[in-house]
Design brief:
The chain is an alpha/beta fold. It has two domains: 3-251, Amidase signature (AS) domain (Amidase signature (AS) enzymes, Alpha-Beta Complex); 302-421, no CATH class. It has helices at 8-16, 22-40, 48-63, 106-113, 156-163, 180-185, 220-230, 274-289, 305-320, 338-349, 352-365, 370-394, 416-421; strands spanning 43-46, 75-79, 117-122, 169-174, 189-190, 212-217, 260-264, 293-297, 397-398. The strands form two sheets. The protein has a six-stranded mixed beta sheet with strand order 1-3-2-4-6-5, with helices on both faces. A three-stranded parallel beta sheet has the order 8-7-9, sandwiched between helices. The longest helix has 25 residues, at 370-394. The relative contact order is 0.12.
Length: 426
């Protein structure tokens, strides 16, 4: 088996046994990137020099018989909305083309402290707004399983890099499906942790009440390993939950016998591809054979979740992205006066999808429409939450599709409403 196909635990064993040095492991991934990146285009910035220097440090540690952690020496890359000190962080936008943060996001620092080897920053839909990674200001990313298809979005670069074996794992961010959908499109495991589980400090905000950082990995165990490293309370993030640090892999040891699984019927109606439906049915039959108890349930307000999301998230984005005005950092157009500078900077620095969502959000928050749209959407959000609370009081787990269809063809989603409907389950 090729080293690049190995799980985190397998790579750790190779390093500890000295069958492979950390430098050799890093070079293996870098060579694979060099060979395949022209087809996948997952990266926006490669940090080859610092990666090899970090690998050499870990090799010295192993040579001196020091113990290394499970993630130490493991190659990783981060979505390009996660701040990295001294490394360009663009959000795939012209607005931040040359922005170099003076500090690390908490998740970036935690992975650095765990000894991971950072190979670079990954492409995404501009400011996280999109489902295909085609709204990036720099270039689209392609699905490693079929270069004619998209990897999903907005964390498409993260999913493509893992599926294309360019990194062992990656971090993405998820607001309304941006980890889970690309993971599904690329045959991976993607997790949006419960809000507050992982710090958002140093992550460029899209919709602050919805954004979360999470892992994209090849296996469930890898996902649990990474989550164990990045989760936990952060005093720098006011929305961070007070959690006791724990090892999430412990929950993988139990079987599914007597596990009560709810299947919300609203997720299996019109719009779900027969192919996707068939795969889920097959998985449910396997779970049933293993002793799980499966039952159909209902979530009456879930059909309104997506319309509410497309009011709440643009509203929050319109506020969050107001800071990108050409004054303090980022792209700037010189003009005769301040107002014209604001207008031209945002007109040229932001892409069409970002502008569209800012306008939607500004409209929803405007005088005369706030109660009719934004306030009503928040009330719907509460009803949807109650649906989940009631369902999870009865069932241990709910199962639904991640996406209605398989990965789209590149350029296929020119119909925006069709693209937005792809978020129906996330």
């Amino acid at each position: 088996m090729k080293v690049i196909n190995s799980s985190i635990q397998e790579l750790h064993k190779l390093l500890v046994s000295k069958e492979l040095s950390c430098t050799e492991l890093t070079e293996e991934f870098l060579q694979h990137i060099d060979k395949n990146e022209q087809n996948i285009q997952a990266f926006l910035t490669l940090t080859e020099e610092t990666a090899l220097a970090k690998a050499a440090e870990i090799d010295k540690k192993i040579a001196s018989k020091e113990e290394i952690g499970l993630l130490e020496g493991i190659p990783v890359a981060l979505k390009d909305n996660i701040c990295t000190e001294g490394i360009r962080t663009t959000c795939a936008s012209r607005m931040l083309d040359n922005f170099v943060p003076p500090y690390d996001a908490t998740v970036a620092q935690k992975l650095a402290d765990a000894g991971t080897v950072l190979l670079g920053k990954l492409n995404m839909d501009e400011f996280g707004m999109g489902s295909t990674t085609e709204s990036s200001a720099f270039h689209p990313t392609f699905n490693p399983w079929d270069y004619s298809r998209v990897p999903g979005g907005s964390s498409g670069g993260s999913a493509a890099a893992v599926a294309g074996r360019e990194v062992a794992f990656a971090l993405g961010t998820d607001t309304g499906g941006s980890i889970r959908q690309p993971a599904a499109f690329c045959g991976l495991v993607g997790l949006k942790p419960t809000y507050g589980t992982v710090s958002r400090y140093g992550v460029v905000a899209f919709a602050s009440s919805l954004d979360q950082v999470g892992p994209i990995t090849k296996t469930v165990r890898d996902n649990a390993i990474v989550l164990s490293s990045i989760a936990g309370h952060d005093p720098k993030d006011s929305t961070s939950a007070s959690l006791i640090k724990e090892d999430y892999t412990q929950y993988l040891e139990n079987n599914v016998k007597k596990l009560k699984i709810g299947i919300p019927k609203e997720f299996f109606g019109d719009g779900l591809s027969p192919d996707v439906h068939a795969v889920i049915d097959s998985a449910l039959k396997t779970l049933e054979k293993l002793g799980a108890e499966i039952e159909e349930c209902t979530m009456p307000h879930i059909e309104y979740a997506m319309p509410a999301y497309y009011i709440i998230s643009p509203a929050e984005a319109s506020s969050n992205l107001a800071r990108f005005d050409g004054v303090n950092y980022g792209f700037r157009v010189e003009a005769d006066d301040m107002v014209e500078m604001f207008k031209q900077t945002r007109a040229e620095g932001l892409g069409p999808e970002v502008k569209r969502r800012i306008m939607l959000g500004t409209y929803a928050l405007s005088s005369g429409y706030y109660d009719a749209y934004y306030l009503k959407a928040q009330k719907v959000r509460t009803l949807v939450k109650k649906d989940f609370d009631q369902a999870l009081a009865k069932y241990d787990v709910l199962i639904s599709p991640t996406t209605p269809t398989i990965a789209y063809k590149a350029g296929e989603k020119s119909d925006l409403l069709s693209m937005y409907l792809g978020d129906a389950y996330t």
